[in-house]
Amino acid sequence: MKLKAVKLVLNISITLGLTAGIISLQKPQVNTSKKANQQESNRQELKEKTTASFLAKTPNFGYGNLIADWAFLRFLVYFGDSDVRQNTGYSATTNYFKTIVKNDPRFVKAYFYMSPATSIFAGNPQQSTALIEEGLSSIMPQSHPDSYFLWVYKAIDELLFFGDDAAAKASYDNGIEWASYYDDNRSKAVAARMKAMSKFLADNPDSVEAQIGSWFQLLTNAKDDVTRQRAIDNIERLGGKIKFTPNGVSVTVPEEHRRT
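Predicted structure:
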């Protein structure tokens, strides 16, 4: 019996020892695999930045629209790869935005994706605002029915990231003027909201309510779920309550931050 017990203990010890050895061998392999994946993600990120930067700097030889279209499609794939972006961030976004504005500044719909991606996710609101300004210099208000939205995005950046109420108010005022070129109900509704924000900023500078209002505008105008969720997160961080109904979405401002 004693001999059998000793053998049993030895077998268990050997088994445990082998198992521990296998685990210890696997652990560095897992770490190595994670490191390799991170290195590959970093290489891809550098490649994206280099490609977008190259396109932003080179002549387009008359194919600006095609280059801008390609850059925008490439950005959508890049931005949509959220698993990789969690490891690398969104630094190539700014370069894609530059490429689009340089090659086709009148590509209005692209701004609706590029502006929040650059200011919020790439953390570069200065560049986002500058590129919107550059694009606006090439756009006439009557040239595109959504052109006045560019002033909305510019105002959002100025208010949320720079705390510049005066600049945001000026952007809203410009947006109101541009929207006046259109007589449809949607343009009138947007103009009314811009007018309300402009008046609010004049009367209530540096207010939480104004910040919630700006995030809410971003929420209602966002073109992708990632930006919508970021807007929701920030509204809730500021104490706002969001309500989704079949008729749309609304937000309630905390009582202590409401206008009196």
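Summary: The CA atoms of residues 135 and 229 lie 27 Å apart.
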